[in-house]
Amino acid sequence: ASSNTEILSISDPATLASVLTVGVKNTIGDCRVKVTYEPEYVPAVPPPVPDIPAEHLAAMIKATVKVEVLDDNIAYLKIQHIIGEEMAQKVGPLLLEYIWDKVLPTSAMILDFCSAISGELSGIPYIVSYYTDAEPLIHIDSVYDRPSDITTELWSMPTLLGKRYGTSKPLIILTSKNTLGVAEDVAYCLK
């Protein structure tokens, strides 16, 4: 890529974006990558979490999470949406009761992100921290947002609601071509 100086002479931003898209796709082998030129781009601001009773929020979350204990004491946790920090704080105790307390005593876990297509960036440290030690803190990721020119540093959390699953039990992470966005990042960070 550094030796291909021909692209530097492309003056049309849309054409340059198209050429870069082809180059990046061929280089990294990910057909989902796309470079765009959007001079009027305004980043979307996520809507605030509505004031819904915690029980209703927990029911919504349970609809996007499947939990069971398989033979040989193996937990199976299928997550379709990764909740963010604000939601986790609202429904944390209910999540512990309905989901986490069931999988915590197992001897291994299958974490299924095959259908995870949505999530919130602030949820990454929550999930990853349950599979790390409390100390030392671990740098999980750095996420750069070009429009705002802000880099967000994500670190493991020293304290969590409930106990950690730990680092000594086997953890199997399932992904597919349908694993997108935040779930993709969580899978990569846990790897």
UniProtKB/TrEMBL annotation:
One of its GO terms (biological process) is proteolysis. The gene is IRBP2. The keyword Protease does not apply. Keywords: Receptor. InterPro entries: ClpP/crotonase-like_dom_sf, Tail-specific_protease. This is Interphotoreceptor retinoid-binding protein 2. Residues 53-191 form the Tail specific protease domain. GO terms for molecular function: retinol binding; serine-type peptidase activity. It comes from Misgurnus anguillicaudatus. SUPFAM superfamilies: ClpP/crotonase.
